[in-house]
Predict the structure.
Amino acid sequence: MTEAVQIAKQIGGSLMVRIPKEIVELEHISPGEAVHIDVRKLRKDWFGMFPQLKPFTKEDRFHSKYE
């Protein structure tokens, strides 16, 4: 499965989402062909964007070079 993040745009009374050219070529999609789309809204607060980043601790606060 190939994923992409796109912005929905208003076209008349509908919303349109563009499929990037790279995905069209990779998946060999042609005009008029049926595709399955899984729609999920992105979280706006971006909390958890970097799961490898550990939470700050009191020790981190004492080691900060900006304080």
